[in-house]
Amino acid sequence: MHPDTRMVHIEAPALTGSTPLAVPIYQTSSFSFDDPELMADGMHRPDGAYVYSRFANPTVRALESAVADLEGGVAAIAASSGMGAITMLLHGLLGTGDHVIAQHSVYGGTHALLADLAKRYGVQVTRVDGRDPEEVRAALTPRTKVLYLETIANPTAHISDLPALAPVARAAGVLTVVDNTFATPIFCRPIEHGADVVVHSATKFLGGHSDVTGGLAVFADADLHQRIWAHAVEFGAVADPFAAWLTIRGLHTLGLRMERHAANVARVAAWLATHPAVSQVTCPGPGAAKHITGFPSAFCFDLAGGYTAGVRLMSRLRVIRAAPSLGGTQTLMLHPASTSHRQLTPEQLRESHISPGTIRIAVGIEHPDDLVADLEQALDFAGS
Ligand SMILES: *Cc1c(COP(=O)(O)O)cnc(C)c1O
């Protein structure tokens, strides 16, 4: 054959007798076949042969299997972001005129998605506090399809009573969907407490290094996975092999990182509560809920000096970085009133449980002495 042909037909060598220690990146869009039957089969079921990477890809599958296993589910679908997973799932579960019962306090993107589903498809949404099974029972209608909760809500750290609420939904034939981004399967496995689907922003703790955007939906039931997989293939917001590979690399240290995050949070939260410039620390501690065995590294504290103190504090950080997001190795801080929530009126800020002096901190895995020293010099400046 001519060089022009040979240079485009470079084959991946078949492995004989050895296995790669790390999951390889299968950076390929398609797979070739000798057997047309096998190709057709892979196009119609999630566990058939690999055909096309929007349907399934071995690197992405390794991530899906690992997270499904950690969460105690049967299978998972990896998406291009946390919102990609949530949007793909809710579009797959809901139709025009269906009804959702959702916790008041949910991630901003999820809030916006529910509002969009309401406007676009007439999906009715009833908000509940998330702690009272009677409130859920009273909200049920014949069109209710989904109960939507967050294990530990972003940004309020509000904890839903999943073990009490899920049985009410199940008895009514309603699926319980839980966003477990904050707790991770290290601190809570919602399927063990009655959830049907668990969603994640893998951008946060699962990836864990602020270098990848990704999401997952994990299923307790194989039939539901099969149904949503068919929809995910059409929806197309699937994970890319390299993003999946980075997330797998992050997963190796999830347990170690969560342990260190939790130890650092305990130290930083307790220290903050003693500083005169800090008026309040909102950080759920051990014992806040039986089904959660550890607490997230993101929490809020309020400055006595209000808005001005918030701006001064953020301008003085030396180790801690001013940035949104959470779940990475580095400690990040955000002053919502001057950044993410700048356009809100004082009234709307109050409704979001944010005061002009609220600071959101996502504690990383640095040495806690360095974090406390940085906070001390910045708070002394902010409070002066
Ligand atoms: C960040 C986040 C999301 C959205 O994830 P992306 O990866 O940014 O799309 C969803 N839920 C929670 C709780 C989050 O913190």
Model description:
The protein contains 14 helices and twelve strands. The chain is 39% helix and 15% strand. Strand 4, helix 7 and strand 5 form a beta-alpha-beta unit. It folds into two domains: 216 residues, Type I PLP-dependent aspartate aminotransferase-like (Major domain) (Aspartate Aminotransferase, domain 2), CATH 3.40.640.10; 130 residues, Aspartate Aminotransferase, domain 1 (Alpha-Beta Complex), CATH 3.90.1150.10. 45% of the residues are buried. It is globular and about 75 Å long. It has 384 residues and is of the alpha/beta class. Strands 1-7-6-5-4-2-3 form a seven-stranded mixed beta sheet, with helices on both faces. Strands 8-9-12-11-10 form a five-stranded mixed beta sheet. The structure holds pyridoxal-5'-phosphate. The site of pyridoxal-5'-phosphate has 15 residues, from helix 4.
Briefly note the CATH topology name of the largest domain: Aspartate Aminotransferase, domain 2
Q: Ligands bound here?
A: pyridoxal-5'-phosphate
Distance between the termini: 78 Å
- Determine the mean pLDDT: 94
Name of the CATH architecture of the largest domain = 3-Layer(aba) Sandwich
Count the DSSP helices: 14
**Please, what is the oligomeric state?**
single chain
CATH superfamily of the largest domain: Type I PLP-dependent aspartate aminotransferase-like (Major domain)
Enzyme class: lyase
GO biological process, one term: transsulfuration
Catalytic activity: L-homocysteine + H2O = 2-oxobutanoate + hydrogen sulfide + NH4(+) + H(+); L-methionine + H2O = methanethiol + 2-oxobutanoate + NH4(+)
GO molecular function, one term: homocysteine desulfhydrase activity
